[in-house]
TrEMBL record:
Protein name in the entry: Cytochrome c oxidase subunit II
Higher taxonomy: Bacteria, Pseudomonadati, Pseudomonadota, Betaproteobacteria, Burkholderiales
Species name: Noviherbaspirillum autotrophicum
The organism's place on the tree of life at top rank: Bacteria
Keywords attached to this entry: Chaperone
Coiled-coil boundaries: none
């Protein structure tokens, strides 16, 4: 998987060190789910060199091909139509909705408790609640890159992923992929679902 520059973490926790492919992909997904991509990001994904095989690589290739043809304004319109809209969004991006059927419910409270234990807090610049898929991906990226041995351990990563992502992220991706208005974001969701499947398998084997 090819590295693509993404936005900085919105969780206020320092980290250093070289980014890994996993962290890069979590960061890219966070950026794409947090808001519509800029033309520069679309171009960066489209032009990124690619190699390898497998379903995850194919999903990446499909996204890159879509980015090559995509128009930033149309992608923005799609994002706003799917995830913002007027009144209730067409598609929710929050864990609480998929786990309880409502927003701001017990899953969010449990997540906040675990974030407190990790000494992480939502940045004031991030308007979304902590159970937004973008925030979840950013936490995973932080855990992978953290210099804190406890935070970056596979046990911590696995615990956070299995508790707060694994149970609902696939259903969210399926909802996006099957929505008739999802074109660009259908490819993003396909990449995300394959990536989360790979993460699940890897953690199960760890």
């Amino acid at each position: 998987m090819t590295s693509v520059s993404t936005q900085a973490l919105r969780f206020e926790a320092p980290y250093q060190g070289e980014e890994s492919a996993r962290a890069d992909l979590y960061g890219l997904l966070a950026t794409l789910f947090y808001g519509p991509p800029t033309k520069d990001l679309l171009d960066a994904i489209a032009q990124a060199p690619s190699s390898g095989d497998g379903v995850l690589q194919q999903a990446w290739n499909d996204l890159a091909a879509t980015c090559e043809e995509a128009q930033a304004q149309k992608v923005r319109d799609e994002y706003e139509s799917l995830f913002i809209g007027v009144g209730k969004p067409e598609i929710m991006l929050y864990a609480s909705f998929y786990l309880s059927g409502f927003l701001m419910e017990k899953p969010l409270a449990a997540l906040r408790s675990d974030l407190d234990a990790l000494r992480l807090q939502r940045s004031d610049s991030m308007p979304e609640s902590e159970d937004h898929i973008a925030a979840m991906c950013e936490v995973m990226r932080y855990l992978i890159l953290s210099e804190d041995a406890e935070h970056s351990s596979l046990d911590t990563q696995k615990r956070f992923f299995s508790t707060h992502l694994q149970q609902w992220a696939g259903a969210m991706c399926d909802t996006i992929m099957h929505h008739p208005q999802a074109v660009f974001y259908s490819e993003v969701a396909q990449l995300a679902k394959h990536f989360f499947d790979v993460e699940t398998q890897a953690f199960d084997m760890a």
